[in-house]
Specification:
The chain is 44% helix and 18% strand. It has 170 residues and is of the alpha/beta class. The model has no long low-confidence stretch (mean pLDDT 92). The chain binds adenosine-5'-diphosphate (ADP).
């Protein structure tokens, strides 16, 4: 691999980071000099957590994986990738339902920046069904999420939903 290809960016909402996201990074980080988990802040209004909260949780959850960093970006992923001189965009694929979205994004990014490659990695079987969305739903209804998210996220979800229910009651 040429030098520029040894830096990868793993973009997404990460609202919040799950063990599925962490699994992708654990598996792929050794193949790169540096991997930046990039939190897109464009969709901030829809998020349960602010981009800063997501970044703090991700940093804590990934601190034991060498070469992994966390950043926040408002704008096109390819602009960030070019800015830091990375060559690869990493994405994960779970079900067939992810496929079309990932295909469209990869082709759009190729059109915008032909020199950047998208690498799609299959989710591990144990995390195939884990998404930030389902984790939030389970936590909202008091279900156990300790096997689905890092401990720091479990704590933050409990706090967030406790705050929400207290605001609704008052
Ligand atoms: P986005 O809103 O861009 O889809 P997400 O934070 O949901 O961002 O996901 C970021 C990337 O991680 C996406 O490529 C997504 O398919 C992938 N991903 C999400 N959950 C998992 C999982 N459980 N296993 C593997 N990849 C995953």
């Amino acid at each position: 691999m040429e030098k520029a290809r040894r830096v990868a960016v793993y973009p997404g909402s990460f609202d919040p980071i799950t063990l599925g996201h962490r699994d992708i990074l654990t598996r792929l980080a050794p193949s790169f000099d540096r991997v930046v988990l990039l939190i897109s802040s464009n969709r901030q209004k829809d998020g349960l957590f602010t981009p800063e909260e997501r970044a703090d949780m991700a940093r804590e959850a990934l601190k034991d994986i060498p070469g992994v960093e966390v950043a926040i970006h408002d704008g096109l992923t390819v602009d960030y990738v070019k800015k830091i001189g990375a060559g690869v965009i990493l994405r994960g694929l779970r079900a067939v339902t992810d496929f079309e979205y990932e295909l469209v994004m990869a082709n759009m990014n190729k059109k915008l920046a032909p020199q950047i490659e998208t690498m799609i990695v299959f989710a591990s079987p144990e995390f195939y069904y884990v998404s930030s969305k389902t984790v939030k739903e389970v936590a909202l209804h008091g279900g156990k999420v300790s096997d689905l998210v890092p401990a720091v996220v479990e704590k933050a979800l409990l706090k967030k939903f406790r705050q929400k229910s207290e605001t609704q009651q008052s």
